[in-house]
Write a structure and sequence with these properties.
By secondary structure, this protein is an alpha/beta fold. It is 36% helix and 19% strand. The chain is built from 7 helices and 9 strands, in the order βαβββαβαββααβαβα. It has helices at residues 13-24, 83-104, 127-140, 166-175, 179-182, 191-201, 213-220; strands at residues 3-8, 28-35, 46-50, 69-72, 109-113, 146-151, 155-156, 189-190, 209-212. The strands form 2 sheets. The chain has a 7-stranded parallel β-sheet, sandwiched between helices. A two-stranded parallel ribbon has the order 7-8. Strand 4, helix 2 and strand 5 (109-113) form a beta-alpha-beta unit. The longest helix is centred in the middle third of the chain and has 22 residues, at 83-104. The chain is globular, with a radius of gyration of 16 Å. The model has no long low-confidence stretch (mean pLDDT 91).
Length: 223
């Protein structure tokens, strides 16, 4: 049975990878993307809704009905950010989405892009690890039909995708000749694999899992 999905963060590297795979997949019937500004993409499957403040998701509640999953890919680097600002983006926003979507359809799947090293005990000395772990716990314990916390580490961009962080793109350009070697590592994943794993997570028997890089690659295989 085909799925209808909501995707956030489709202007970013991971979110764009997930969006491209969903657009190509016969398993996905329709897609609602929610962004702060338009990505100016047209496709028969695709609908876009703009939302400046993701903690105010309740203001677009009527647009969110009828979907089977939320693939929450919006995120930001913690570099140079204080805990208050980072928490608003990394914890407050996804949890606000989870709260509203759980009211609409508690049986849906909610996938959250976290990061390698996130601390589920919420006690790490590193701010980003605590905040990510706190968000993971809130989502996995919300009571959805299913939920996954994706913890990619090293990610190789594919299909012409670029990061919104400039120095990432410079680094990728320098190490691109080594990509085939990096892909041999089970812990290194790609934007394509993350997208495929997100799709396959909607059809799996696994429940409420934290997925590291190797797990993401394994889940992507059957796509």
């Amino acid at each position: 049975m085909k799925k209808k999905v909501i995707i956030t963060g489709s202007s970013g590297m991971i979110g764009k990878g997930v969006l491209l795979e969903c657009l190509d997949s016969e398993k996905i019937e329709s897609i609602l993307i929610i962004n702060r500004s338009s990505i100016n993409t047209q496709h028969p499957k695709l609908k876009e809704v703009l939302l400046k403040d993701f903690t105010k998701v309740a203001t677009i509640k009527e647009e969110l009905s009828g979907y089977d999953a939320c693939l929450f890919c919006m995120g930001v680097s913690a570099v140079g950010m204080n805990e208050v600002d980072y928490t608003k983006i990394t914890y407050d926003s996804p949890v606000a989405f989870a709260d509203v979507l759980h009211q609409i359809n508690p049986k849906m799947t909610f996938n959250y892009i976290s990061g390698q090293g996130s601390d589920g005990t919420e006690k790490s000395n590193q701010m980003w690890k605590r905040v990510k772990g706190r968000a993971e716990n809130a989502i996995l314990n919300k009571g959805f039909g299913n939920a996954f916390a994706f913890r990619p580490g090293a990610i190789i961009p594919e299909r012409g995708i670029k990061s919104r962080t400039g120095w990432y793109n410079t680094m990728y350009m320098i190490i691109r000749p080594l990509f085939p070697l990096f892909k041999m590592s089970k812990s290194v994943t790609t934007t394509t694999s993350i997208g495929q794993a997100m799709i396959n997570s909607l059809f799996t028997n696994l429940r409420n899992q934290v997925l590291e890089g190797a797990d993401i690659n394994e889940m992507a295989k059957s796509c």
